Prior knowledge:
By secondary structure, this protein is of the alpha/beta class.
Amino acid sequence: xxxxxxxEIETASREEILAIQNEKIVKQVRHVxxxxxxxxKLMDEKGVKPEDIRSxxxxxxxxxxxxxxxxxxxxxxxxAKPLSECVRIHSTSGxxxxxxxxxxxxxxxxxxxxxxxxxxxxxxxxxxxxxxxCYGYGLFTGGAGLDGGSHKVGCLTLPMSTGSTERQIxxxxxxxxTIICCTPSxxxxxxxxxxxxxxxxxxxxxxxxxxxxxxxxxxxxRNIQKSLGIKAYxxxxxxxxxxxxxxxxxxEQHGMHINEDHFYAEIIDPDTGEVLPEGSKGxxxxxxxxxEAFPLLRYRTKDICxxxxxxxxxxxxxxxxxxxxxxxxxxxIIRGVNVFPSQIETVLLNExxxxxxxxxxxxxNNTDTLDxxxxxxxxxxxxxxxxxxxxERGLETAMRGMLGIGPKVHLVPPKSIQxxxxxxxxxxxxxxxxx
Length: 435
Ligand code: ADP
Ligand code: ZN
């Protein structure tokens, strides 16, 4: 089954995509140079003029932008349109520090909604669906992003926002929601709550989930698919480039297709800034090709992934990005070893635990410590103390195998770790408090 929202562009050949990109980038660089003094200065400092950019091949000559630039230019410094032409503001969720704000013209909103509509249709959504959006509405882009796409597809949209999990479930059941959109951690929580209420996965009408906004593992995907009785799709995006929908999974579920008619992607070495060849793992960098109000060129996402142009059986020729395993910011360096929370999640779910865990990092006597609190499932809670200790040691061994360093695992009572309704906070790094 082949599902497209904008078939012509979604199935365009590589040559056609490249031609579109080349045409757009020339105009975009001129637009930014003429209207964004902040970026004009960066280009001037680098000695690059708009006329030097004749195709996407030349993008590598442009200076990078980083989150620090966005904070520096806060709030209007990167705006490329008069405020009177802007219709919306969104803001990052502030996961990694001071929030940045992004502006949208109506054209930008339409373009963004088209992207999320493509994601919904690629996942199998049609106008017959009832879409429950339980990403946060408001400054966060999740709610508005999926809501806009759902309207474009013509789905009946349930704008629930996050929280009130009881009511989410009531409406899901009473109004026969067929598609659910939220963070994967919230999806897991909803699945857990459904089970507690005595519902079986087949009791609801849900068939598709579209989850993103935070890293999640394949093990987490299986866990959610099972508890909700759905097929779960990944969606990726960030406020700086519009919001969710920059990339989305097709039925193949082998990486997410980047909407390349709107976003040009590069992978760079995060240390040197050098552009890496296809297939290399590195930092993802985006250039917005046709956004008007907040058109970032060469924005460094800090997300680490791999790009692939291998042919996809879905018929799309858009490049695919691998699931980002976490931002460079999420990576913990513990006793000199790089550790990602996603590796810990993989071990826990493989060992039959729930995705309710918390990672505590500290420094004691100049040595880094790694403690992982993991919830026991209710059926294990009654185990003898000696059994629990045995389980803890077992998990520690499995963790050591995956991470290369040995953490201390503490099994804690069911429900003692706070559930997430938005982006889960998995790591508490106390070393930062001492520094
Ligand atoms: P913040 O940067 O404050 O979290 P955003 O809400 O804009 O604000 O979050 C964008 C970031 O969320 C991305 O850069 C990426 O790190 C993460 N993200 C979004 N979607 C996914 C996804 N599907 N998988 C992994 N990480 C994701
Ligand atoms: Zn595909």
